[in-house]
Amino acid sequence: MWAIFPLQDLLALKDKYTTRPAAEETINDPTNPKHYWRFRVHVTLESLLDDKDIQSTIKDLVTSSGRSFPGKKVEGVDESGEKLSKVQLNGKP
Asked: With 89 labelled, which of 15, 21, 27, 68 sits at a CA distance of 20 to 30 A?
């Protein structure tokens, strides 16, 4: 099963990427017949590749969903002593 998320939804996971007003990110203005569809991305691909925090956030969301493959379920305990379950991808947490 595939899950496809719009880029703007993934960028919204981090405050750093949500500082622009929504009007600046509008992809279509239906009142203007000469307006065309486009998404105005305000970050470069290079900066996203360098942002290990957002990569980690997205990876954690995918692995904690239990829907990643190939994966192996791993049991553990967090700082409060509460039992945790997570999935490892290719042997890496």
From this structure: 15
- Separation of alpha carbons 19 and 42, rounded Å: 10
Structure tokens at 89: 């991808």
**C-beta contacts of 82-87 below 8 A and 24+ residues apart:** 87/63
**Regions of the chain where pLDDT drops below 70:** 1, 26, 38-39, 68-93
Query: How many CB atoms lie under 10 A from the CB of residue 17?
Result: 19
- Residue 21: the pLDDT is 79
Looking at 1-93, which runs of residues are DSSP E strands? 71-77, 83-89
Is the alpha carbon torsion for 68, 91, 85, 56 positive or negative?
negative
With residue 52 as reference, give the H or E element that holds it: helix 52-64
The rounded distance, in Å, linking the Cα atoms of 85 and 27 is: 40
Question: What pairs with residue 52 in β-bridges?
Answer: none
